[in-house]
Amino acid sequence: MPDGVWTRVEIGLNALAVDPAGLGGLWLRARSGPVRDRVIEALPALPLPLKRLHPSIGDEQLFGGIDLTATLSSGKLVERAGLLAEPAILVLPMAERTQPGLAARLAGAMDQGTGHCLIAMDEGAEPQETLPAALTDRLALHLDLDALPWGQTERIAMDTDALAAARARLPGVRADDKVLEDLTVLAVRLGIDSLRAPMLALKAAKALAALAGNDEVDQDDLTAAVQLVLAPRATQFPEEPVEDDQPPQDPPPPDPEQGDRDQNDGEAQSLDDLPLQDILLEAAKATLPADLLANLAARKAQRAGGGISGAGAKRKGNRRGRPIPSRRGRLDTGARLDVISTLRAAAPWQTIRKRESSFERSLHIRTDDFRIKRFEEKSDRLLIFVVDASGSAAMTRLAEAKGAVELLLAEAYARRDHVALVAFRGEAAELLLPPTRSLVQTKRRLAALPGGGGTPLAAGLKTALELAIQSKGRGMTPTVALLTDGRANIALDGTANRALAAEDAERMAIAIRANGYPAMVIDMGQRPERSLKALADTLGAPYIPLPRADANRLSTAVSAALDA
Length: 564
Known about the structure:
Layout: H1 5-18, H2 20-23, E1 25-29, H3 34-42, E2 50-52, H4 59-63, E3 65-66, H5 68-74, E4 79-80, E5 89-92, H6 100-111, E6 117-122, H7 133-136, E7 141-144, H8 160-169, H9 177-189, H10 196-211, H11 219-230, H12 256-265, H13 267-272, H14 276-286, H15 292-304, E8 314-317, E9 322-328, H16 339-346, H17 350-356, E10 371-378, E11 381-388, H18 394-410, H19 412-415, E12 417-425, E13 428-436, H20 439-445, H21 457-473, E14 477-484, H22 498-514, E15 519-523, H23 530-539, E16 543-545, H24 551-563
Parallel strand pairs: 1-6, 1-7, 2-5, 5-6, 11-12, 11-14, 14-15, 15-16
Antiparallel strand pairs: 3-4, 8-10, 9-10, 12-13
Organism: Rhodovulum viride
EC number: 6.6.1.1
Pathway: Porphyrin-containing compound metabolism; bacteriochlorophyll biosynthesis
């Protein structure tokens, strides 16, 4: 049984060196440093050539394309093989930045059984910065070295002769038919919803058995495989099976001879009769992530937040941002021509076009060959505060909102945030602060804020929706933050009708959610309000109760909800 994180790292890398294609690869979550370097130093022992990828690599580099220089110089089509043409160890640094398109292409290449093995170097700093699920599901080994100090590591020993012998022995390694069933049941109890996980665990056990010189998988191989493959994937703590409420049956009369044998065999008999599922379950429990509950809570908050992100939404354009692969297009739209990609698209047709053309020219390019440059940029985020300014405590709430706005604006230059403020009181709502990043302008606008009157919550949400639609048209990514402590009592038509006001507020919340704008509801009342919790559910937004919160707590809560 592997004891210690680094021991599991060594065992996992040796198993991967025995069956790299069968295990799929390694998801290594670790920052760049000497600890990760020790893992990288062991990769040359894997029996395949190493090839490095980039998170934004294009299809031509992956699958191959035309060698433009050789084609133009020789006058004949010369193709160039891609990185996926031959089986290789694909090392993917900055794996947390992998786009869904690249993840799908790599997953497809691995599913084709061409022998590729992926080493994903995940350097994500936050729980949501991680490798796409399409790849983590296909990589048998998951290792997290972020909390591992250098003093608990050592050089990884890789015996090339023993690994070669294990690879030769691997096809003959067998496992009992019930082993896969036990692994599948264990995966279900750990909350793993993928059937690939138990199959990868079985392959890891066979690789370990071959490495140990055995022709059959034993209990130690399965225990190590469970700790390497299943335990890091766990999404819940395994629950004990529910016992039936039926009265216990009378046991059969004891056999004196059997009793003597049990007394003589004693402890060894009980260990031998322990079910394999229970043994593997205890092994998995011993290596479950210590922060499993915290990670589950963070994922739950992220789902409740409706996809709120610390950065603005990604957009595709043709002017600025990070370059992404070009696509076929026209030049009459103000787009920028990708000359190299255009020449590559035209190169295969030069022989035919020269033969058909009545003009003598060295290069024949048509509109179908045009490739347009594309860039991916992140839009600025707009945080729209919708503040309840009604009632006798309005000045206190507005003062807290003012402090929170100023604190958030102090970070606006680093986080590319804009802030707007909508106050609702009396019979209507008012846009007090249009979208801005100017702290000076914000302080001037917030110097004197009126308060008192009824609670026209629907009017506040309507004004926020209109502002969100306008800002979205200007290229921003709006998020609505509602701060209130009471129920709506003023309808959209200005009448004092609680029932109609609640219906209007619900309709506005449905409209905000239908437009896809993320939101959050901050309850600043002394006691949690059920109607606000229901409104948050309608918005698809997190509900955050903060009784008597000051500006610092309010700013911290908003930042945490945005970064969840």
